[in-house]
Amino acid sequence: MSDIASHADSDAHLDLLAGLSQRLLERARASGADQAEVSCSEDTGLNVNVRMGEVETVESTRDRGISVTVYFNGRKGSASTADLQDASLAATVDQACAIARHTEHDPAAGLADAELMATDLREFDSWHPWAIEADRAIDLALACEQAGRDFDPRLENSDGASVGSGSSLSVYANSHGFVGRERSTQHSLGCALIAGRGADMQRDGWYSIALAADELESAATIGRKAAERAVSRLAPRQIATGQYPVLYSAEIARSLIGHLLGAVSGGALYRRASFLLDSAGTQLFPDWFAIDELPFLPRGFRSAAFDGEGVATRESPLVAGGVLQRYVLGSYSARRLGLQTTANAGGVHNLQVAANGGDFEAMLAGMGRGLLVTELMGQGVNNITGDYSRGAAGFWIEDGKIQYPVDGITIAGNLKQMFAAIEAVGSDVDPRSHIRTGSILVGRMTVAGEG
């Protein structure tokens, strides 16, 4: 796919980026910076899209980015370039220094503390290049779409199928002497189909994503799943407005965890723009509920030995016994809050939500009667108040069984109350994300439908 496909080639490119980082740090020091950090990345990719049996796009990408940040006694400046020429690199450092000399002093600015830098710089089996040519990728996408379209005669249209493959190399280095190297790959195959005609059309799809191509679901399986999902949504009904249990399917349930992360992240907290201010150490969830951060998972989507500032990552609970154990902080937000970084500069590293409710069928049976949500629309979430209101579609459940599709509804509540009202988490984990959760049952929400 590219000239960095092999382990040996990737090592050579990482060596190049690491050497480049050192030269930039040396120039920053020579320019008077008391601290400096450099991030270098090189990404390659192949993406193809087909629709209705025809090729729509074939795109090959190669991107490079070099970012330099310097600190002059709490004054920060940053500049970036994609040009590896010496003159351009020198100009980038000079520009960062010039910016820093014109910024205000910020006592929270600066590198993470030197003693927190990672020393165990292991890898997590995340480098699996896929030597796929464009013609083969096109054939896979066409086979995926055709398998779906052949599933049911009501599938007369398609939003297409796609294949993607990418690799990423990165180096982060700073003036503490830390140099961290990472490499990863990610591959995907997906399909979206349209069932029915006119005003009765329904769209749905399926996709698979993995760090290694041999872990992708087959093209035929993805096409059939996309077809089943689209056809199952035909002839939706309305439901009466009321208070009902709501079961978030696994791929939708992780959005609830995402809202939690947004509310406990350092930026929202020090800006006082979160409904979970001063919530560390308080009970937010039922006492059986737990979320653990697991940065060392082999082939984890966000596995890493260090965060975006070089701080050593560590396994730790985010929620235990229903109690929020900590916030999600990098060094800047931690200083603003009078706390210490949680090694989350750049985000969290693989979250695992503990299950207590069995598989998907057990979750349906446990709910008995209510709404299964398989799609959310809109952005109706207020991070300051926690008020939650989103358009939704899914299925009505009676006697623990799916009865018929529903759409054109709105589900509403307050996130703090919704967290407390979670009754079960399924073991039906959707593996396509760094937030690993099964379906989540919220005991009661307002559902606005007919009347």
UniProtKB/TrEMBL annotation:
> What is the protein name for this chain?
Metalloprotease PmbA
List, alphabetically, the InterPro entries matched. Answer: Metalloprtase-TldD/E_C (IPR045569), Metalloprtase-TldD/E_cen_dom (IPR045570), Metalloprtase-TldD/E_N (IPR002510), PmbA (IPR047657), TldD/PmbA_N (IPR035068), TldD/PmbA_sf (IPR036059)
Give start and end of each Metalloprotease TldD/E N-terminal domain.
36-100
Q: Which family does it belong to?
A: Belongs to the peptidase U62 family.
Metalloprotease TldD/E central domain span: 128-234
What gene is it encoded by? pmbA
Source organism's superkingdom?
Bacteria
| Claim: Hydrolase is one of the keywords in the record | yes
Keywords, ordered alphabetically:
Hydrolase, Metalloprotease, Protease
GO MF terms here are: metallopeptidase activity
Limits of the Metalloprotease TldD/E C-terminal domain: 241-449
